[in-house]
Amino acid sequence: MEQRGGRQREKKKFIPGKMGKFIKKRCRFCKQKIDSIDYKDVNLLRRYVTPSAKILGSRASGNCARHQGLLTQAIKRARYLALLPYIIK
After folding, report:
1. Which of 10, 19, 74, 76 is most buried by a 10 A CB count?
2. Which of 1, 4, 6 has its CA nearest to residue 52?
3. Could you tell me which residues come within 8 angstroms of residue 70 by beta carbon, excluding any fewer than 6 positions away?
4. Number of other CB atoms surrounding residue 20 within 10 Å
5. What is the CATH number of the domain that holds 32?
6. Is 59 helix (H, G, I), strand (E, B) or coil?
């Protein structure tokens, strides 16, 4: 794992013998077979929010479309209940 900008990223792995072929990182929630994302789990949600309180996109976080939607909904619910900030000055 590589750490850049305060969050950890999985490196893409190079396959020898196949020019330019990389293994794409998989969705973390699909790996662990998580069906729902709880809005009360603030530590999990903070991993997918930038230091300026923006939600990370699916390309940056590595989530599939289904889990990215669930994650976004959970972050918005947590913000509404003041568990996460809308903006950080």
Report:
1. 74
2. 6
3. 29, 36, 37
4. 6
5. 4.10.640.10
6. helix
42 inside domain = yes
Q: Which amino acid is at 22?
A: F
Domain count along the chain: 1
Asked whether 45 and 53 are in contact (CB, 8 A), the reply is no
List per-block mean pLDDT (blocks of 10 residues) for the chain, which spans 89 residues: 59 60 77 93 94 91 93 96 91
pTM, two decimal places:
0.71
Distance CA 18, CA 86 (A): 45
Residue 85 lies in a domain: no
Least Cα distance to 83 among 75, 68, 73 occurs for: 75
Give the span between the Cα atoms of 61 and 24, in whole angstroms: 12
Which single residue is written with the structure tokens 């940056």? 60
**Residue position matching structure tokens 């923006």:** 54
